[in-house]
Amino acid sequence: MKRLEGKIAIITGANSGIGKATAELFAREGADLVLAARRLDKLQEVEKYAKEQGVRAVSVPTDVSRSEDCRKLVEAAIQAFGRIDILVNNAGIDDKGMSITNCDHDLWNKVIATDQDSVYYMMKETLPYMEKNGSGSIVNISSIGATRSNAGISYTAAKMAVIGMTKNVAIQVAGTGIRCNAVCPGPTETPIFDPANAATFDQEFSELCARHFDRSLPRTQPEDQANAILFFASDESKAVNGETLVVDHGATI
Ligand code: NAP
Fold first, then answer.
1. Helices (H) and strands (E) in the chain, counts
2. Known catalytic residue: 120?
3. Which ligand 1 atom lies nearest to the CA of residue 18?
4. Which residues partner with 59 through β-bridges?
5. Which residue among 10, 11, 16 is best mutated to probe the pocket of ligand 1, counting the most ligand atoms within 8 A of its Cβ?
6. Which residues pair with 87 in a beta bridge?
7. From ligand 1's centre to the CA of 184, what distance in Å?
8. What pLDDT digit, counting tens, does each position of 66-124 carry?
9. Contacts of 48 (CB under 8 A, 6+ apart)
10. How far is the C-alpha of 46 from the C-alpha of 183, rounded, in Å?
11. HSE of 31, CA atoms in CB hemisphere, 13 A
12. How far is the C-alpha of 103 from the C-alpha of 138, rounded, in Å?
């Protein structure tokens, strides 16, 4: 028996990095997928892969920083499959490691809208359907930038808020059959580490932040994060609620 057989999962940020690895793993584990991100062509590549694994999948172009888009995404999921069993709030952007000194209001607002507000919008839209079914698993993607506060100011704020919202929702749903947990990835080999992107970071502040974790350990792979997300999504973690799981090779012990 596959671990997500018969489950319906929404995954945001499903066309790249951790979200893509999660979508592909979920497809292999039998879940039907609602794939969301802004770039439709990249989503459709993942949709094709999912269908080749024998599951159903739809791609929904979505800007998760817009509440209206999140509402439409959840509606599209219900229209396609009639229920939602799993929500993975993975879509996110980095903030170029900007210190408070170098983070302007535009960057702050963009990062908070994308990495924090989106999680509120998606949980608020999805929960009523999970409550109707009396079951569901929400997996929010935070970061070691939250547990250690060692990222840019806006990213740290947003990802800490994600942990706070995760625990707050977990209190509300405890004992109802619904669960809400978070994964905190450490440095993971995704496009965030493309040299062109890395060169745009606040080098001085990033260097200060990097002193607060063990850089000698390897980066994780997107599949390492996907495996942790699968654990929270599946019934194997049915007694786990309100938890955060750091996946970083122990870099922040
Ligand atoms: P990635 O490869 O750049 O993927 C980011 C995903 O988010 C893409 O699918 C992107 O698709 C989507 N996205 C970005 N803005 C969006 C928006 N406004 N609306 C909808 N989708 C949007 O990054 P990743 O490294 O896999 O990151 C995935 C998650 O893990 C993020 O929340 C990130 O903060 C977190 N994380 C990553 C690391 C790491 O080292 N990689 C460490 C800790 C936490 P479109 O551009 O097509 O919209």
1. 10, 7
2. no
3. 26
4. 35
5. 16
6. 10, 138
7. 13
8. 999 999 999 999 999 999 999 999 999 999 999 999 999 999 999 999 999 999 999 99
9. none
10. 22
11. 28
12. 31
Using CA atoms, how far residue 251 sits from 44, 88, 115, 214, 231, in Å, is 35, 24, 23, 5, 21
Q: Phi first, then psi: give them for residue 133, nearest 5 degrees.
A: -85, -15
**155 contacts: CB under 8 Å, gap ≥ 6:** 94, 95, 97, 111, 115, 143, 145
Write out the two tokens for 108.
């702050």
Q: pTM, whole model, 2 decimals?
A: 0.98
110 lines ligand 1 (CB under 6 A): no
End-to-end CA distance of the chain: 35
Does ligand 1 have an atom closer than 6 angstroms to the CB of 119? no
Give distance in angstroms: CA of 206 to centre of ligand 1: 19
- Name the H helices within the chain: 17-28, 40-52, 67-81, 105-111, 118-133, 144-147, 153-173, 195-198, 203-210, 222-233
- Long-range Cβ contact pairs of 114-118 (< 8 A, separation 24 or more): 114/64, 114/65, 114/158, 115/154, 115/155, 115/158, 115/159, 115/162, 116/157, 116/158, 116/159, 116/161, 116/162, 117/65, 117/67, 118/12, 118/64, 118/65, 118/70, 118/89, 118/91
Cα-trace Rg, the chain: 17
**Letter for the amino acid at 126?**
T
Ligand 1 binding pocket includes 39 (Cβ within 6 Å)? yes
Cα of 116 to ligand 1 centre, how many Å?
Answer: 12
Give tens-digit pLDDT for 46-69.
Answer: 999 999 999 999 999 999 999 999
Least Cα distance to 192 among 90, 94, 65, 91 occurs for 94
**Alpha-carbon gap, residue 77 to 74, rounded angstroms:** 5
